[in-house]
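Troubleshooting log. The previous structure file for this entry was overwritten by mistake, so regenerating from the original sequence record. Sequence copied from the archived sheet and checked twice against the printout by T.R.
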Amino acid sequence: AWISSASGPINSVTVLESMSNPFGRSRDRGKGRGKGGNSRNMRGPSANDDAILKVGSNNDVHKTGGAIAQRTRSGQLTMMDSAGALSVNQAMKSLFVARQYLVDDEIDLFAQPEFETLDPRDTASGGLNTLVRVTLEQRTAQRPREAKGMLVKAGPNSDPKVVAGAIAQNIRAGHHCAVSAQGAVSVYNAVRSIIFARRYLEPDGMDIEFQPQFPYSESNVMHMVLHPQ
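Regenerated output below.
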């Protein structure tokens, strides 16, 4: 079970239901979708001019997820650029869909977000007009296992830097950690929080990556499960 730490002390306890399926939905849902490449091609990613997928607020998450899956199978480096809460939310849903499409290929995806902008001041602050770039890394899928750890909650009014501090505190303490968000603005704040947490962890020689999951059936609550590096 995940233990809730919100953005406050890491010892506040609210037990939530466990997550045994890392995709949060039936494995059958993604079968046969997003095809178009060699499903067994596991060579390392290679950067090219077409590596960046621009994800907008009106993107069809199944089509975008299929494009990500196809690029992954062909060994291409994939980065997603999105700006604003609605677009970032669509990007996270697309990544979730892509992970489902890749289940039968025994490939999984891990994400690392960063701010990308022409204005260094915006990059430092992570302002609302800052572009979010998410770089995806592919690996051989691991056997699903029961997830336990600390749950940090990001809401629509959360300060991403405060949530980032809670994330960094949990990671330094060696806790398994996930960020919970519901709704586009909350998901946007969660992604921004992860970016700031990466910065907070850098002096410690640590970094994190994440995977989006929907742990509860019939719910739009998203968990971004963090993995330390």
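Residues 5-32, 36-48 have pLDDT under 50 and may be disordered. Archived copy saved in two places this time.
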